[in-house]
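Write out the bound-state structure for D-ribose.
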Amino acid sequence: MKLAISCDHVGIILKNPIKDWLTELGYEIIDFGANSEERTDYPIYGKLVGEAISEGKADLGIVFCGTGVGISLSANKVSGIRAVVCSEPYSAKLSKEHNNTNVLALGSRVVGLELAKMIITEWIKAEFEGGRHQDRINMYK
Ligand code: RB5
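---
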């Protein structure tokens, strides 16, 4: 599975260790930056990951900013993206099973590294259930 990841200058403290961990687990990672703690703007990085998913360059995306909110909103502006910000595993799991989310956003000021790993694990392994949930997704348009 190919994962696109990105962050702003605040999310980088979570993105880098998560990238190492996912790489160790055998995932192919496409890292769209940022690559330093120098102040930048999260919409740049949410959009990059959103576009990568929408263009089929990656299967899923994981994005990081201070709260996860701003970068999830920017990813959601890309056509075909359903990004969710989560701070616990239950919503992450259900967001994939029911809402077929394709981008997960995490806040580095909200969750620690080990909780982030639990959230990501549940989200990646969850499978979309289709059926009535697909009907509802079709109604977003
Ligand atoms: C940056 O200060 C901060 O606003 C950003 O990381 C994020 O939390 C926005 O939603």
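---
The chain has a mean pLDDT of 98.
The first helix runs from residue 12 to 24.
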